[in-house]
Task: inverse folding
């Protein structure tokens, strides 16, 4: 039986790794994550068990690989969320 390569993911703006976790649960391999927030990188590496790198996205340009790569990104939502804008609502 022929085996299929496991899809690999690089998470850009990875935050705590919650988007990566969904891909991980779906059978993808997480190669790593990048973010410009130190606390998020610490959470990502502990939660996802993949390398995280503190980097400014403007300085990051992935090089061509000899395999397909899926790049995902979840931009921060904390500053834009309308949830619980009034104290003690939830």
Result:
């Amino acid at each position: 039986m022929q085996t299929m390569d496991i899809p690999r993911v690089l998470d850009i703006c990875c935050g705590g790794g919650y988007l990566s976790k969904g891909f991980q649960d779906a059978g993808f391999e997480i190669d790593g994550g990048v973010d410009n927030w130190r606390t998020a990188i610490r959470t990502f590496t502990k939660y996802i068990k993949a390398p995280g790198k503190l980097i400014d996205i403007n300085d990051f340009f992935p090089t061509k690989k000899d395999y397909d790569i899926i790049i995902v990104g979840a931009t921060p939502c904390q500053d834009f969320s309308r949830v619980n804008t009034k104290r003690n609502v939830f």
Remarks:
- Residues 38-48 form the longest helix (11 residues).
- Helices lie at 18-25, 38-48.
- The beta strands are 8-12, 29-35, 52-54, 70-73.
- The chain has one domain: 1-58+69-90.
